[in-house]
Amino acid sequence: MIYLDNAATTWPKPESVYQAVDQCLRTRGANPGRGGHGMARAASLLLYETREALAELFGIADANQLVFTYNATDAISMAVMGLADPGDSIVTTSMEHNAVARTLRLAQSRGVTIHVIPCDSTGQLDMQAMAAAIRQKPKAVVMTHASNVTGTIMPVAEVGKLTKEQGVALVVDAAQTAGVEDIHVADMGIDILAFSGHKGLLGPQGTGGLYIHEAITVRPLRVGGTGSLSESDLQPEFMPDSLESGTPNTPGIAGLNAGVQFILQTGQAAIRAKEMELTGQLLAGLLAIPAASVYGRLDLLGRTAVVSFTLKGQDSGQIAHLLDQQYAIACRSGLHCAPWAHKTIGTLETGTVRLSPGYFNTQQEIEQALAAIREIAAQGGFIHERDFS
Ligand code: PMP
C-alpha cells in the first residue's frame, strides 16, 4: 500500500514511536501526578520530558505554559472558548479548517463577532485587509499556519508583528506544520499555538498540545482532578494544571515524545527537504497531465507537502476510490473538513483529490501514484459518462 494521506495523520510512525507506546504501557503504566510511588513518578517524568522537548522545538521559554490535549481540534476549542467573551470580536481567514471555522461559529452563537479575511484562489492571505482588521483591535486573530487543502503557508510572523503592535492575541493552528515547518512562538509573535501530535510530530492519534503565553489567561473548558491542590474543590489557576484535568493519554504522550526525539535527531530541515522533494515531483507530474487542475501555489515556495488536484470531467471521490481499489494508493478526496478553503479556491462543488506525502514516502511511490493518475486521466471522463448514461 502506498500511503499518501499524511495530512490527515502520518503513517507509518518511526519504529521508536511504536516501541515507546508499548514500553510505556508495560513499564510506566501508572497515573502521572497522582501518587508518590515509583511508577507514578516515572510517568510524571515522561510528561515533564515531553513538555520540555516540545518547548524546545517551538521556542517556548516556560514549558509549563504548554498543555497536552487530545488533538489540534481540542486545543483550538480550549483556546477560543476559554478566551472569547460575548461582545468580543475575532478575526480569521477564509482558508480555515472546520476545527477553527466551527469553533468560531459556536463562539458566534454566544455573542462573539467573527470577521473573515479573504484569501485569493491560491490561498494567499489579503494582508492589507488583515492589517486593517487588526487595527480595529479585535480580541484575537485565529488563523492556520498552513492550509490542509492547498498546503499554502500563511504569513504568520507578519501577522504576529501587527498583532503585537496592537496588543491583539494571535492564536495559530499549527496542525499542518508542527514538526515540519520552523515554529518559534516568541520570534513569530504567536501568543497561543494549537497543534496535533499525530501528524508532523509523528506521535500517535489522541495527542496534541496547546501553548499559551504567560500574560494570557484561558478559562478551562474541562475541570476536575489534576493531582494537585486536592484539598480544594476549585480548579487550580496555575499552568499546566488549570488546563489539564483528568488522566492524560500517557502512552500516547510517550509515543509523541519518541516522535519529537526522532525529529530532533533526524533534523527538521532534513524532514522538510525530503517532503518538499517528493512534493516537487508530485507537482511536476500532475502539471504534465493535460486533464489535471492543480490548486494552490504551483511552485515549492510557501507551501507544505499537500497537493490538491482534480481531473477534468471526473469525480474526485471516484478518483480516490480507484486509487485505493485498483492501485492500493491511500489519499483523501472531497472537502477535507475545510469548506471555507474549498470555497476560496473554487472547488466547493467538486472537492479535490489530496495527496500528502510524508517523510517515509519514496520517489518510486510518487512515480507509481503519478502513473496511476495518468491511467485514470487517460480514461477521460469515463466515470462522468457512466454516471449519466
Ligand atoms: N487544522 C488543520 C489545518 C488541519 O489540517 C487539521 C486536521 N485535518 C486540524 C486542524 C484538526 O486536527 P486534529 O485532527 O488533530 O484535531
TrEMBL record:
CDD domains: SufS_like. Its cofactor is pyridoxal 5'-phosphate. It catalyses: (sulfur carrier)-H + L-cysteine = (sulfur carrier)-SH + L-alanine. Residues 2-368 form the Aminotransferase class V domain. SUPFAM superfamilies: PLP-dependent transferases. The keyword Transferase applies. InterPro entries: Aminotrans_V_dom, Aminotrans_V_PyrdxlP_BS, Cys_dSase-rel_unknwn_funct, Cys_dSase_SufS, Cysteine_dSase, PyrdxlP-dep_Trfase, PyrdxlP-dep_Trfase_major, PyrdxlP-dep_Trfase_small. It is an enzyme of class 2 (transferase). NCBIfam families: am_tr_V_EF2568 (TIGR01977). Belongs to the class-V pyridoxal-phosphate-dependent aminotransferase family. Csd subfamily. This is cysteine desulfurase. It comes from Sporomusa sphaeroides DSM 2875.
